[in-house]
Amino acid sequence: MSQTPTGPDADQASTEAAAAPAFRRVTTAVVTGSSADAPYHVEVKAGTHPLTSDEPVRRGGSDSGPEPFALLLASLGSCTAITLRMYAERKEWPLESVRVRLGYETDGRNGRIARRVALTGALDGDQRARLLDICDRTPVTLALHAGVAIDTTEDRA
């Protein structure tokens, strides 16, 4: 049986509860997978969009789709390109195109993502510098930098 705090503990508990932000679902994905023919192949439904993912042959997969880290990099790159486009449009800057090249690197213990951004258009030096600065403020970048809590429970069919 739990007890409701009283006195100073109650004040602190109500303050913490009031200060805690409510979570809201932003997006969803459903992943279904693994068969005997292609043991690591998975079907992904990201929102309403079907995708596939798999491991490369060198890791026992059939290479029928991007590996999971490639999807992570694609997510970061997509968010970067879209955010830069939105920002440039709002500022009415002459950004013609964005290319984001990403790589995941590891030393066996720690990982890092190398991101290289190519901006095409008649942008001046200040505009280019600002767009590169915006790269560190995209939603996916912020989530990766902050670390995201992952709550896992069994979903029984």
UniProtKB/TrEMBL annotation:
<dbReference type="InterPro" id="IPR003718">
    <property type="entry name" value="OsmC/Ohr_fam"/>
</dbReference>
<dbReference type="GO" id="GO:0004601">
    <property type="term" value="F:peroxidase activity"/>
</dbReference>
<feature type="region of interest" description="Disordered">
    <location>
        <begin position="1"/>
        <end position="22"/>
    </location>
</feature>
<dbReference type="InterPro" id="IPR015946">
    <property type="entry name" value="KH_dom-like_a/b"/>
</dbReference>
<dbReference type="Pfam" id="PF02566">
    <property type="entry name" value="OsmC"/>
</dbReference>
<feature type="compositionally biased region" description="Low complexity">
    <location>
        <begin position="10"/>
        <end position="22"/>
    </location>
</feature>
<keyword id="KW-0560">Oxidoreductase</keyword>
<dbReference type="InterPro" id="IPR036102">
    <property type="entry name" value="OsmC/Ohrsf"/>
</dbReference>
<protein>
    <submittedName>
        <fullName>OsmC family protein</fullName>
        <ecNumber>1.11.1.-</ecNumber>
    </submittedName>
</protein>
<keyword id="KW-0575">Peroxidase</keyword>
<feature type="region of interest" description="Disordered">
    <location>
        <begin position="45"/>
        <end position="65"/>
    </location>
</feature>
